[in-house]
User: Fold these one by one.
Assistant:
Number 1:
Amino acid sequence: MSESLPSYLAGRWQHGNGKGTALFDPVLGDELARVDATGLDLAEGFAFAREQGGAALRALTYRERASLLGAIVQVLQQHRDAYYEIATANSGTVKRDSAVDIDGAIFTLGSYAKLGETLGDRRYLLDGEAARLGKDPLFQSQHVLVPTRGVALCINAFNFPSWGLWEKAAPALLSGVPVIVKPATSTAWLTHRMVRDVLEAGILPPGALSIVCGSADGLLDALEPFDVVSFTGSAQTAAQIRTHPAIAQRSVRVNIEADSVNSALLLPREAGGNDALPLLASEVVREMTVKSGQKCTAIRRVLVPESLYDAAAEAIVAKLREVTVGNPRNPDVRMGALVSRAQLATVREGLAQLQAQTQTLHDGASQALIDADPAVACCIGPTLLGTRDPDGNALVHQIEVFGPVATLMSYRERQGEDSIDAGHAFELARRGEGSLVASLYGSDPAALATAALQLADSHGRVHVISPDVAQLHTGHGNVMPQSLHGGPGRAGGGEELGGLRALNFYHRRSAVQASTAVLDRL
Ligand code: NAP
């Protein structure tokens, strides 16, 4: 039997008393490890984190906590090679895709270490200026932000076992709030290894970082009113969390990052010969293939003016033909595996549903694999679908196929008095009912700015690609710590990152009403 990955709760490593669940290599099919949280005393573990970890972290200043993040960065750098090996084995990703998860996490932690330093030697934050409450200026109201006296339960999706951990843990720890991480079972190994390395390095005070490896059963029951939950995963699990008594009755604060049918939009008047169309084609192919399309931010819908539908299809398909798929250990392979056979089956099912309403422009489902047995490996080539009737085919706006699949669709350019507008394209983008990100492609700054504002209410991030930033931009799907990550509606309604904005979630805001002499001492 393979190694069992223990949980770390109440300051000690603990094994569950059940049979556990196996983690597999999605290319070779080998069992790699097991996780099991059956019978763990979660209430004890949460209380230890809340009391010991919370008190120790709150005793430190922001600058001191920032230096802890810096020390974590160094530990992770030391063990980077091991993390890449685990990612290849357990996530089936090529090196470039593992980097998004591993180096993306280290970069995010490093960014919060730097941001934290700017907050200095304080233990709480002032929020805005004092406001006069009456005629006499002596009695005023000052808002303060203080770290919540609970734990941050961070529940992650399978596709980012490293970045998902640290993009949540960095702002929580910087805020002075202890973290209990629950990785998705199928890829828990990398999260486990990173947590183990950081704990062994003795950087953090006892109780500041804990991990539950295994099922989520009973986790939410251990929550108390000042705890917070930061969740990333499917809309279905999100709905269960929202209706759990801890959230519904104890008002535990919850942030949800769920699924999303993101779009890429080529603005009107971008004729085939100019730069915007090739930029769109490159980005679509990158988004379809990085991590085999298992990215919550990946482009799922590609909106182009009807006059450019054929040209766009041709440009994207030409690039997809070059994508090699199979065993990530083979240097000729550009795209590795999906995470599991279950995920492969779900992708095939979603693809079939979309194919009922679209035309298949490039079929990757039957593509030959390199160095991988199709009966075992969870690999599938990229597929581009297309429809010239996105109004009538509702499923293309509803189904998130969490794999290398996107749908090209045409929109009608509307001729106004002195301009052509993309109103129809904006309507189509909004049919995703709230997404994490939309990207815009064009060369007219004024039209791009107008379009960005049109989409801002239904998208957490609008990524604008014009020829002048072709070599500079950070990528449609890359989540940068400086920018907001999250989206309204279907995307979960959450907000993460966005620089120091992320700290709001882990702090409580309170208005202190007092004489100016008191407020001056805050
Ligand atoms: P999932 O099945 O919803 O699982 C997410 C996490 O929730 C896992 O750790 C899972 O543990 C845990 N969980 C399951 N049932 C739970 C419950 N009743 N209470 C509390 N936690 C529970 O999602 P997934 O399949 O891992 O991830 C794929 C989905 O995540 C996609 O839809 C994708 O769009 C979305 N996603 C969103 C973002 C974003 O930032 N918006 C990022 C990445 C992924 P087990 O694994 O042990 O079941």
Number 2:
Amino acid sequence: MTKVLIATEKPFNGAAVAQIEGILVKAGFEVAKLEKYTEKSQLLAAVADVDAIIIRSDKIDAEVLDAAKNLKIVVRAGAGYDNVDLEAATAHKVCVMNTPGQNANAVAELVFGMLVYGVRNFFNGKSGSELMGKKLGILAFGNVGRNVARIAKGFGMEVFAYDAFCPAEAIEAAGVKAVANQNELFKSCDIVSLHIPATAETKNSINYAMCSQMKKGAILVNTARKEVINEAELLKLMAEREDFKYITDIMPDADAEFKKFEGRYFSTPKKMGAQTAEANTNAGVAAANQIVGFIKDGITKFQVNK
Ligand code: 3PG
């Protein structure tokens, strides 16, 4: 019997888990759950006899793949799959998929929740500012970036975007101003919202040179990945520029250092972007369906390690 493990250090909500289990059980699969685990050894033990795994930001590396002798597929219920060692998965003949777009609206809504909090001085009682009329720069125009653009228009913001992989025409077709390059985006916008994945090219790319081009009163919002930030250089910039705010959904390694910039820094304690009932259900159900499609019919749509 096909056995599927739901391995979530940060669990889906109960209703989403029930739906995921329902789909897998209906397909005739056995379901195991490993939630809120704290040690890698627990994951290594849990994967020993499973054919498929549903994960979130849980790390799947060569050691986990070695321990999972029957494994055929890993589905990351979410967008970013930088937590999975794709080369090792391919070497182990394991198919890796994500569920693109399923939690995009949830992340985009959080951008604005955090932005309103930021421009209102973290609700400290002092007069803040509004988003209407401000220039918002969206870095990477994928599923999240597009949702951010849609919501920004509702706030009456002027919306700009740059995406190294998305043609300017596609950005303009969505009613957003396409800028020529990343520097231009940082130079021309009051607020920049990051939606790039963590790759060899993007890691540490949001650095002093990039951010120091931003206007007075600039805000950098990060709901993407902490790895894209050059933390030492951003700290240097924030020490130099008392007008600069950093708001993030991914706690930096140097959280304690950033906290010294009181009133100009906010981080959620745990990544909250995709943590809604709707996103949990959308991504979890998609992951379960993708596993059924792969095991029963060999469907490889959304495979990321081709
Ligand atoms: C994603 O890549 O889909 C988001 O960062 C959400 O990650 P999470 O499932 O760990 O909340």
